[in-house]
Structures are given as C-alpha cells and as structure tokens.
Design goal:
Strand order of the largest sheet: 1-10-11-12-13-14-16-18
Strand content: 15-25%
Shape: elongated
Number of helices: 12
Largest sheet: 8 strands, parallel, barrel
Helix content: 10-25%
Length: about 700
C-alpha cells in the first residue's frame, strides 16, 4: 500500500542465469521458438459493427490479508494454521521441530493474541498424547480422550471470553506415538473454529476456509495475495525457501524477512480461488531466481482451474523506500550492479541516473517473469489467461512508469534488439494504485461531499490511463479505495467514516469516476482491520448491514454496468500535434517539430461508437526519405511516408491509414522511422456511416 512520496525511490529484484533465454537483454539471441506478433493490418480493414458495444460490468478485486493469528479475516477454519511459533516449556526459546514444524518435545505456543470475538467451542485434535494446559488467558478443556487405535487425541475447547486476551496452550508429557518415550512431541494439531460467532458447533476437520471469509470475498472477481504471501521485504530466492502447505502454520517469523514473516503457501492461495471460482493475482518475491519463477508457473498450471485467469506481478511497490519495503533497496543495488557489469540494457540510452536504472529494472524483471510463464503456458495463454502487470506509483507516472516504458519501448521494441516486440507482448496491464482522499477532511459532512477529491484524483488517473492507452494495455490498480488518512480523520475516529451509510454512495461515485477515466480492474484494500483501508473491522461484521456499508458499495457496483469512458479526445477530430499526452517534452528534449527516428508521441482518443477512421498527417520531412510509424493500441498500424518540406516551415497532407476502432479509449502513437519529421496536425475523420 502507498505510504510515502516519491522522495528516495528505490527498487529491487534478483537476476539469475538459470533460464538464460528468459533474460530480456539476451532474448533477441536465444528466443527463436516464439515468433514476433504480426503488425495489425489496416490497409484493407474489415467493416466494424456500428452498434454500441455491450455494457461492460464493473471489475473489482480484493487484497487478501496476511495469515497472522490476530487477523480479523479468520480465514482458516483451523486456527492452528494462523498460530505463532512453538516454544520450549517455560522458555521463549524455540522448540525442536520436525520437517513440518511440529514439536519433537514438550512445547507451548500462542494460538492467538490481540484479537477479540474468539468465543465459542473449538474442536481440538492431534496425533499422539499429552497433557494439555491453557496457560492464558481463558477457556476450559472438555472430554479429553486418547484413542490408541488411531493415535489420536481429541477434546472440546470452550473459549468463553470475547475480549482480546488470547489463547496460549502447553502440551506436556507428550508421546508422539503409543510406544514413543515421554517428551517426544506431537503432530498434526488442529483447532477447528466455531462456525458462528460464539457457537457451540465447530467446523469439520477437513474444512480449509471459513464460511464468513469466503462469503465476503465471493463478491470480488479477482483476489490478490500480496499480504498473504508476505511480499514486502520477502527474502525468498530459491523455490525451497518458500513456505509449503505441509508446514503447521501459514505465519512463520524468520530472520531477514519483514513483520509478516515468510508468507503463506501458494497452494492455499490457489485453493481459495478454486473454491470461490475467482481469478488469482500472485506476486513474485523480488529476489526470486528464474528457477523459482519456473516452478511457480508449473505449480499454477497444475493446480489453478483452467477456467480461471492469473494476474502476475513482480513484487510490490518496488518504488517504495519505507523500511517495510526492503525490496526497493535490493532492486536499486542490483540495478547498479547490472549496469556496472556492462551487459545491461538499463542504460541503453546512456542514462547515468541510477534511480532511473532501478525504475527501469522493475519492467525488465517483470518482463522476464512474463517470458518464463510464456515458456510454461505457451503463447496462446499469454494476455488471455496469464496476465502479467506492471504496477507503479499513482501521481508520479512521469517518474517510475515513464522510465519503465521508456525501456520497454525505446529498447525492447527498437532495432537495438534483433527481435523487437511491443510492451503488450510482455504485459497485460499497467498503472499505480487508485487510493483517494477527501478534499476537505474537517468533518463527516465535508468528507462525504467529495470523498475522492475528484479534481485532483482525476489528474492522476488520466496520467496512468494515457500510458495504458499508448501501449494498448489495461489500466489496472493493484490497490485502491477510500484512504481516509489525513486531516481530522484519525485512528480514533476512522471507523466513524467506514461505518457511515453515506460511504456506500460515495464509493460508487468514486468507482464510476475511475471507470470514466479509463480504469479497468480495481483491486480494493483490505477486507478487515482497523487500518484506514479496511471494509469491516472483523469478518463477523461482513453480514451486518450497519457495519458493512463499504461492502454494500461493491454489491451495488456488481448490479450496475461500468460507467462510460468520458476521457480522451472524441473522434472524429483534428488534433494539434503539439498537444501530445505522452511523453513529457523534457524526455530527450522531444518536439513534434523534429521527430527523430525512435522518438514517439502518444495521443489519447475516445470513440463513442465503433467505426472506421482515416488518419492523415499534416507534416513535412526535414530531410529526404522521411517516414513515421503509426501505432494504435500498442500495435503497428502502418507507416506513412512524409514528403520533404518545399520551404522552411511548410507542411503537406500525408497519405491516409484506415483505422477500425471499437467504442472506448484508444492510444494513437507516432514514432519516427526514418529521417526527421515535423508534424503539425493529426486528422482523424470517420468513414463509416452511422
């Protein structure tokens, strides 16, 4: 999530040689099995239907919380899967464990602490036998019995209190099997939660996820597992470093990792998506090597339902230099090391700013990850089922995002490589977050008068939409929603806004603003907690109509169609070439009065109804044999020869290109091909009758 500004941005990822052909600066030499996508043919376009496109649904996702013992999601039906580490009896030292994390001696552990509303009847079971003691803070064990035939001990644990005092269990006089010596430990401990708050019936032992958790998430189309996988400050490099589903708990603290520990198992993330029939969004650890990525791709292919899509992201907020985001520091160091090696494209244009190298490296590593998944899934799955995304910082698109796309377009889609490919070969979508703050936070009335500070927020949304349109990508937000974190909105009163019924309509309006400005998938953050971004304080509140007003906004959006795009120059139109949307003019001192080979300029346009448009340039070559490429939505539409200027400052009308365009937002990108060109006007006239 966004916590700091742009100052001191850094990034992180690890480059390995395990799959050499996946490394982008080598792909031109070694990737001979995948052909370059053909350019879009526009010389003889097929007729485009003139009827309006079918109404589009709103596309919303949710970020899944980390699986800690105090998480209000209560995601696992077995509370042990969210418990803390085993300790020796009477000590803070870690107990001796087997390969799955079960104690090989008498041991104690904190099952939960710092979370209330845990009252009810739990079903305890474990392999082996032991004396079980509740060390703190409440509760009683009933019907404790051991079955030697199955080597299974069972009991009911009655937890009577709804406060946040916690549950601490000790297992003494342990015998792992009927014939094991005393103090030999136990295994496969389960503590199945009550089905309802305070209930006397617990989940069956084979239940994986709780019903309230699944019910709350069913309303979302995509689930992102950044926090569940402990992506921030994640130290995993090799596949063996990850947590597997056989480990006793999905919350494991480890040296070198962040406060969320090692993160949960990919298998459980996939299992949740399979159960709910929702698309899955996985984040690759910043230091993961190529073999790790290949193993992940293989796992996804084997376990995720073939009807479900995978969104794929390299790490999380790699631009963020806050202490909890150490991945940015790693990436920054590795970017400098790459350039120092003399074999990196990060400084392909002679750039000496090492922060720019780091920002570019996020795209480079993300594209490498994309190529590895392409090798496992094949070409047909890419950008349809497998959807790699490039996520950066909202409001600072001309920093990290510009440098990322400058690399992807200026190097990987240029004659500098033997097989140029456009950015959309590697990525499905891009963009920053979609958080918003009220224009005036001084009182509830002023907060809800303009919850998103629309005038300011729209500027940032449109900047990201410009980049997405220019390269034919979807504008996606990895996180978003009302941020409620400034001015008079404090931790003490934040819940007053979350639990105010006015937030439902305010969020619906904000989402309509997102869609109207080119937004596609918006991933909200987060389902539970006391953070400013939470939807409900506790998952038990998800069905309470006085506590789930933010979820009611999602329900309302699911029942209505997506707001029509209102951003972009409406076609037909004649566009002043100087009014380009991208890139900023300071990049390479760019001016449309002298477009040089490789330089590009993008224009964001909008079509109200599908049709075919003729594009002509009013331009002049500043030297003989000048030409300009025209790219539409990230695909090459064709090239236009530009006659040489007959006198200084003169321009002429070029030949035309026929462009079939569907309803919605589009990017028209001009790129110098040969010679230098002065473009003054871009004329887009409609040829199809309504």
């Amino acid at each position: 999530m966004v916590k700091i500004g742009i100052v001191g941005l850094t990034m992180h990822s690890l480059v390995t040689k395990t799959l050499a052909c996946s490394l982008l600066f080598m792909v031109a030499a070694c990737d001979s099995s995948v052909s370059s996508p053909p350019a879009a043919s526009v010389t003889s376009p097929r007729a485009v239907p003139s009827q309006p496109r079918s109404p589009q649904p709103n596309l919303m996702g949710m970020n899944v919380d980390f699986p800690g013992d105090y998480s209000g999601t209560r995601m696992f039906a077995d509370a042990m899967k969210q418990s803390r580490g085993w300790q020796k009896i009477g000590s803070d030292q870690g107990a001796v464990l087997d390969s799955n994390g079960w104690p090989l001696e008498d041991a104690r552990l904190t099952v939960w602490h710092g979370i209330g509303r845990m009252n009810g009847t739990y079903r305890l079971s474990f392999q082996g036998q032991a004396e079980v003691r509740i060390e703190c803070c409440a509760g009683a064990l009933q019907s404790l019995r051991y079955d030697p035939a199955t080597n299974l001990t069972t009991a009911d644990l009655i937890y009577p209190t709804s406060n946040d005092s916690g549950l601490f269990l000790a297992f003494t006089k342990t015998r792992r099997t009927a014939t094991s010596p005393e103090n030999s430990g136990i295994a496969d401990v389960r503590l199945m939660r009550p089905i309802v708050e305070g209930g006397s019936e617990s989940y069956p032992a084979d239940t994986l996820f709780t019903t309230p958790f699944k019910t709350a998430l069913k309303r979302f189309k995509v689930l992102r597992f950044m926090d569940f996988l402990a992506t921030n400050s994640n130290a995993q490099v090799q596949w063996r470093d990850r947590l597997t589903p056989s480990w006793y708990s999905m919350y494991q603290s480890a040296t070198g990792y962040g406060w969320q520990g090692k993160g949960g198992a990919y298998e459980y993330a996939i299992a949740l998506c399979n159960e709910l029939n929702t698309d899955c969004w996985l984040t690759v650890p910043a230091q993961a090597d190529d073999a790790y990525v290949q193993q992940l791709a293989t796992l996804v292919k084997a376990q995720l339902k073939p009807t479900l899509r995978l969104y794929l992201e390299y790490s999380n907020e790699v631009w963020n230099t806050a202490p909890a985001f150490r991945q940015s520091q790693h990436n920054y160091a590795l970017a400098k090391a790459e350039v120092a090696s003399g074999r990196s494209p990060l400084n392909f244009d002679g750039e000496t700013n090492d922060w720019y190298w780091a920002w570019r490296r996020v795209a480079k590593r993300g594209a490498e990850v994309s190529l590895i998944f392409r090798q496992v899934f094949g070409d047909a799955a890419m950008m349809t089922r497998i959807r790699p995304v490039l996520m950066t910082q909202l409001g600072h698109a001309d920093g990290p995002l510009l440098q990322a796309m400058h690399l992807m377009q200026g190097y990987y889609n240029s004659p500098q490589v033997s097989r140029p490919r456009p950015p959309k070969y590697y990525f499905y979508g891009l963009g920053g977050s979609a958080y918003y703050n009220p224009k005036d936070p001084s009182s509830p009335d002023t907060v809800f008068a303009d919850l998103s500070n629309a005038e300011q927020w729209v500027k940032s949304l449109r900047q990201d939409a410009d980049y997405a349109a220019a390269f034919g990508l979807k504008r996606i937000a990895y996180e978003g929603g009302p941020s409620l974190e400034n001015g008079a909105i404090t931790d003490a009163n934040r819940s007053l806004y979350r639990d105010d019924p006015r937030i439902t309509a305010a969020m619906v309006n904000a989402h309509d603003t997102w869609s109207a400005n080119g937004g596609d998938l918006l991933m909200y953050f987060t389902i539970t907690g006391e953070s400013p971004w939470s939807f409900v304080r506790d998952i038990w509140d998800a069905t309470n109509p006085q506590k789930n007003y933010k979820l009611q906004a999602i329900d309302a959006l699911n029942k209505r169609t997506r707001a029509t795009v209102s951003y972009g120059t409406l076609l037909p139109a004649t566009i002043d070439a100087r009014q380009f949307n991208l890139p900023p003019s300071w990049l390479d001192d760019r001016r449309v009065e002298r477009i040089r080979p490789g330089q590009w300029f993008s224009y964001t346009v909008r079509v109200a109804q599908a049709g075919t448009f003729l594009l002509r340039l009013k331009a002049a070559g500043l030297e003989q044999s000048s030409a300009v490429e025209v790219w539409v939505d990230g695909k090459l539409a064709g090239s236009l020869a530009v006659p040489a200027a007959s006198w200084l400052g003169s321009t002429q009308q070029s030949e035309s290109l026929s462009l079939p365009l569907q309803e919605g937002l589009h990017g028209i990108l001009l790129r110098g091909k040969t010679g230098s060109v002065n473009v003054s006007k871009i004329d887009l006239s409609e040829t199809t009758s309504k």
